[in-house]
Amino acid sequence: MTTTTPAIRRARRWRVVLWGALGLIALAAVWELYKLVGPADGWLIGAQEGVTGSGIRLLPRTSDQAMPHAWEMFTRAAEPVTRAPGALPLGAVVLLAALVSLGVAALGWLVGVIVGFGLALLMLGFRIAERAVLPFVILSQTVPLIALAPLIRNWGSRLEFGAFSWESWMSVVVIASYLAFFPVAVGALRGLQSPDAAHLDLMRSYAAGWWPTLFRLRLPASVPFLIPALRLAAANAVVGTVVAEISVGFTGGIGRLILETAVAASSDPAKPWAPILGAVLLGLVAAGFVALLAAFLSPFRRQETVA
Amino acid sequence: MSNPAPQPTAAAPEPTQVADATEAVVVREVERIFPGAKGATVTALTGIELTVHGGEFVSLIGPSGCGKSTLLRLIADLDEPTAGDIRVFGKTARQARVEQAYGIAFQQAGLLPWRSVAANIELPLQLHGMGAADRRARVAELLDLVGLADFAKHYPDQLSGGMQQRVAIARSLAERPRLLLMDEPFGALDEMTRERMQTELLRIRAETGAAVVFVTHSIPEAVYLSDRVVVMSPRPGRITAEIDVRLGEAGERGEDLREDAAFFEGVTAVREALHGPAAAAAAPRGVDVR
Q: What domains appear along chain A, each with residue ranges and CATH number?
């Protein structure tokens, strides 16, 4: 029986926030510590005299160019993105781009979840489909994303009917969903198949058909398997979006911004870190969204505490 | 069994039923063969003949592998016999299942963990399209019947094993079935809880007047609860004896019955039927061995 009072729960929540903040500070501290004690030029083994790029670098360089101070990254984010008059602060540009990517990733996630769930239902309903589809579902994830991106862009651009024309962001959505559907298909199938034989017997004794059994038993029972799958799908959708933006050539998102700011690395070393942190933030927001979803579905996760 | 089959008019709980329908369960020549490894077959049941009268409490007892649970599953139409015929209230087992002629409870309570006690009991009613208000009234009735009125909003993980099993029994009674099928429902409970639940079951049964087919491997449990104990033996699963115990009306059987001489007589009779043909030859009075 749960006997936690609201006060205790509130205190716990604050503790979570506190630990999160401590983690961030610890990360920055480790960064600065290594920058302080690590060799400025890193540590190479097997380097040949006078040959640049030879040898294996086991420790990264700690020069200001390779590892700007943590606080520089933050102050840089507050400064204008370029010296052009009226330029927005770098941080704002990053946030705007992250927002665009978030929209694309969310769409990719949604498509992936729908497709993945549809496949899981298909495999649940037809034994034969499980045997026929599951190997391809697994196989699909072995195709490298880089190989896939130009193909999807190419096929998409040939699609044209009426007022509809293929935009490059759509290719990004397709690639993000391609990565997102896999954990959902596998997780949902496992979840839908998770009810005990006794529960299935019970539904049969009630003369409940396939659909009532699905809604009253299989769907609720699948939630504990589905939540981790949705979380994985969200992470995959974000990674897929960032990578696909670069390989498809979609401008306006965080992936493209990472590429653009990387060019400035030598003259403005703190600048490329801003969109990278932006991408991290994007991932956190996506994970937070799934956590929120999980909170709504928490009544269906009771059996996790029973077992 | 000294009585002939009950008269359809006088003894039947519902006189409007057609003739054969007064018998709760009629099993004829039933055989169940499972396919085994490499073309071999396992005969789980053979030549099963069993009649359960309306309102009668019949226990199936026997060692593991004697097919008692299989027989129950066949009656419940959760499995199909390879030969023979099963009638439940005069209908085929399938029709009886579709029409919700029986309620069923398993060894594992099998409650849905995401549903409250009330919602679990409500499940069959909800599946069969009963209105929300009617459902609420019926659930309240059932909660009273099993003594869990204060636990309607609790979740299964907040209940003890005995309470969970009570919820399962309430759920099996939701559709007011005239036949209850129970597969070792108290098998996972401790002895104290088990005895309390047995007395409880007798009371519930007296209140509902339902026939019960009860699978168990506890001799005292079978004797205490039943009107008739059906003894089964394995390899191949078959019925070897039927013993009338009937230690008084269900509602009047109390805890003191467990120390009664008639109770021990019944226990001895069932034990002898289970443990060998030598004992069966010297069957005590009132015991009918086939």
A: 90-306 (1.10.3720.10)
Tokens of A67: 């590892």
- Token output for B129: 């399209």
Least confident of A195-209, B15-29, B222-236: B15-29
- pLDDT digits 0-9 by tens, B34-68: 887 777 888 888 888 888 888 888 999 888 878 88
Q: A199 and B110 in contact by Cβ < 8 A?
A: yes
Question: Furthest-apart CA pair in chain A: how many Å?
Answer: 81
CA atoms of B120 and B158, how far apart (whole Å) = 14
> Which of B157, B167, B183 to probe the A interface (max A CBs under 10 A)?
B157
Shortest distance, CA A93 to any CA of chain B (angstroms): 45
Q: What are the structure tokens assigned to A10, written together?
A: 């509130």
Hey, what are B208's tokens? 């509902």
Q: The tokens 């653009």 sit on which residue?
A: A260
Cβ of residue B126 closer than 8 Å to a chain A Cβ? yes
User: Would an 8 Å CB–CB cutoff place B132 in contact with chain A?
Assistant: no
DSSP letter for each residue of A106-136: HHHHHHHHHHHHHHHHHHHH-HHHHHHHHHH
State the pLDDT at residue A188: 92
Percentage of residues in chain A having pLDDT higher than 90? 12
Of B76, B108, B156, the CB nearest to A205: B76
Strands (E), chain B: 23-35, 41-53, 57-61, 83-88, 91-92, 102-105, 179-183, 211-216, 228-233, 238-244
**Distance (Å) from the C-alpha of residue B171 to the closest C-alpha of chain A?**
11
CA nearest neighbour of A258 among A31, A98, A88, A82: A98
Q: Is the dihedral of CA A167, A172, A175, A180 positive or negative?
A: negative
* Cβ pair B114:A299 closer than 8 A: yes
Question: By the 8 A CB rule, do A254 and A103 touch?
Answer: no
Q: How far is A5 from chain B (nearest CA, A)?
A: 18
The H or E element that residue B263 is part of is helix B261-275
Bridge partner residues of A265 (DSSP):
none
Q: Which residue's structure tokens are 């942190």?
A: A277
Cα dihedral sign for B198, B204, B207, B212? negative
Cβ separation of B98 and A208 shorter than 8 Å? no
Q: What is the mean pLDDT of residues B236-253?
A: 75
Q: Which pTM value belongs to this model?
A: 0.77
